[in-house]
Write a structure and sequence with these properties.
26% of the residues are buried. 43% of the residues lie in helices and 12% in strands. It has a domain of 146 residues: NADH Oxidase (3-Layer(aba) Sandwich). By secondary structure, it is α+β, with helices and mostly antiparallel strands. Helix 2 crosses helix 6 and helix 3 packs antiparallel against helix 7.
Length: 232
Amino acid sequence: MTEPLVLHEAQDAFEALAQARHSVRAFLPRPVPLALLQRLLATARLAPSGANLQPGRFWAVEGTARERLSAALCQAWRDQVPEAEDYGYFPRPMPLQLRKRQVAAAQALYGALGVARGDEQGRALQFERNFRFFDAPVALVVTIDREFGAGGFMDLGMCLHGLMLAAEAQGLASCAIGALASYPQIVRDALGLPASELVVCGMALGWEDARAPVNRTRTGREPLQRYFSVLR
């Protein structure tokens, strides 16, 4: 006989926090205090880590360094010059069922913006905003030492999710930016990072502009029965 499900208040609060988090691509020009950012990162670092190795580094990019990085990335995107990535983000080839999810996510984003499917210029301009960190007050570049194995990416991923939830709990919003991983050497050169640091992603962080249509974008999740099984 199945026991009734009893949720504690803390579980309800966490569930509400996780459901509220979404990718935000338009921010208010309100600065985020450095002390608050440091607190969020310290909280995120409490994520589980195999052997407590705590892989990954966070680089807050500001001022002329941010301008230099965004200019170089935008130019590379416009020139459509491919660069060798540090790691494979997507499966190649992309399986059909995953391709459908990718297309649905794009439709949700461009649909919220009113950008038509055939509007290649409109889509390109929106994608370019990845390289400007969506004009968020905080621009983070996330790296990992190239000596780490695949498990290091798993640990870093948990830390990244912890950061996004910690931000949400403080009323801030975020958006992970995988597009930066397409130009790792440009990122390293622009910021003077050592070759030992693999570029994992970027992150935009700040206060959400709730009036921006792009922030109405929502994506669904697979139903539980698609990814959970009980084996006896």
